[in-house]
Design brief:
By secondary structure, the chain is mainly α. Helix content is 74%, strand content 0%. Helix 5 (101-129) runs antiparallel to helix 6 (133-160) and helix 5 (101-129) packs across helix 7 (163-183). The chain starts with 10 loop residues before the first helix and ends in a 10-residue tail after the last helix. The structure holds fe (ii) ion (2 copies). The site of one fe (ii) ion (FE2) has 5 residues, from helix 6.
Amino acid sequence: MLHLQLPTEPAWADLALRNLEDILVDHLYCEQKAASNAISMIVRYPERTALVDTLADVVAEEWEHYRRVLAEIRKRGFTVGPQRVDEYAVRLLKFERKGERDKQLLDKLLVCAIIEARSCERFKVLSQTVEDPELAVFYRELMESEAGHYTTFTDLARVYYPAQEVADRLQACVALEKEIVETLTPIAGRIHQ
Ligand SMILES: [Fe+2]
Ligand SMILES: [Fe+2]
């Protein structure tokens, strides 16, 4: 799905859904990071008009996702504990060529695109397996929204970089993501692990 090389194993959902509180809280932090990442890019690249205009909308959408997940948590009386280390994101962020402002922007856009793609894929699995019918609809809607964000980030990359460069770098990012997913130890209640 969306260029990912490795589909999620069916067993992932059983582990993820073993504790609904944990998965919703982990998801809450994913939405928070998606919004704050988009804000950081706007702060770092204010001269890139298309980027600022597009990501201003993405921030609003991710924050709406955050509010919706928070509402699901509050409705169920769950507690938001401290954020846990997201090994998946930590390892994927190493893809960025740090210290090279222009090249790093391409890498940032592609890492965001891949995280959106994996989130979208996992939300699809959750929508098909979660027992709560309200949450099934909820995850279906978020799946569609994150699929749109994957396209948003790859389109933005092509605004600023030649199509071939984007394609080559995207392929490298997808290959790294596959390696990360293959080697991560699965943990209960996590979106990306
Ligand atoms: Fe989101
Ligand atoms: Fe998103």
